[in-house]
Amino acid sequence: xxxxxxxxxxxxxxxxxxxxxxxxxxxxxxxxxxxxxxxxxxxxxxxxxxxxxxxxxxxxxxxxxxxxxxxxxxxxxxxxxxxxxxxxxxxxxxxxxxxxxxxxxxxxxxxxxxxxxxxxxx
Length: 122
Hints:
- By secondary structure, the protein is mainly alpha-helical.
- Helix content is 88%, strand content 0%.
């Protein structure tokens, strides 16, 4: 029974992280927290702010998928978590390895906990 709560907590953590990424990329990209988080100069941040806002919107859609799945169709949550893992792996491969740990690992842990919770229900 405790795996269900662990799975729920990790899944909500993934959704919260992606809402945070949305805020960072859409609203704080050129501000001190955004500059520090993404190690950007003010000039580079200004030049890439539209791209970052677009990326932030996609992170919001990932969070929405995770949350809608929890409320309505659980398969959507699993699909959304897998999308987060793929995005995290691609980001780690193309941008910075730490993206894997920040984005993909929490989603992998949530998926593992969901799987363990499902095994323990039988």
